[in-house]
Specification:
The protein is mostly helical and 164 residues long. Helix content is 64%, strand content 9%. Helix 3 packs across helix 6. The radius of gyration is 19 Å and the shape is globular. The two termini are 29 Å apart.
Length: 164
């Protein structure tokens, strides 16, 4: 293990144990990661915040969803999703369509413009990740990917929702 692989003395002193120090380091680094992701979203595309990018990606993956489904999936207030959806509609990135199975329901879908912009931003994000991870050994990349999947597999609705 290298010095970069172990918590520094300050972190150990704060947490009291190596496990506490590791948890503190993980929390701090994930906060930094989230902050950088939000900051870089504007550079990827001026119309697409990180939240908007995430919602568009989910709509593409699921081939459309109701706004209430988005709110439930991301554990967001319906009014928050409503504001995001309105902004995406005004930008011409999503549209509402009547659900063929229930004409009372409207389903959100990406427009062609939305698909195009999402594709551009996705490719820019992938390129940025590839560049940042270019000198990592394959074994580290595979392990890191597995750890992220394992971390994110925590069931939604579990205690401590702040983990997201």
């Amino acid at each position: 293990m290298t010095a970069a692989d172990t918590p520094d003395e300050t972190t150990v002193a704060l947490g009291g144990s190596p496990v506490d120090a590791a948890v503190e380091t993980i929390q701090r680094e994930m906060t930094t990661f989230a902050r950088r992701a939000r900051a870089s979203a504007g550079r990827m595309h001026p119309q697409l915040s990180l939240v908007s990018y995430t919602l568009l990606g989910h709509l593409e993956e699921r081939d459309g969803r109701r706004a209430t489904d988005l709110a439930a999936h991301y554990a967001l207030d319906k009014s928050t999703v409503s504001r995001q959806v309105s902004a995406l509609e005004r930008a011409g990135l999503i549209e509402r369509r009547v659900d063929p199975d229930d004409h009372r329901v409207q389903v959100l879908h990406l427009t062609e413009t939305g698909r195009h912009i999402l594709g551009q931003v996705t490719e820019r994000r992938r390129a940025a990740f590839r560049e940042r991870l270019a000198d990592w050994p394959e074994e580290d990349l595979l392990r890191f990917a597995a750890y992220l999947e394992r971390y994110n597999a925590w069931p939604s609705g579990a205690p401590d929702e702040e983990r997201d």
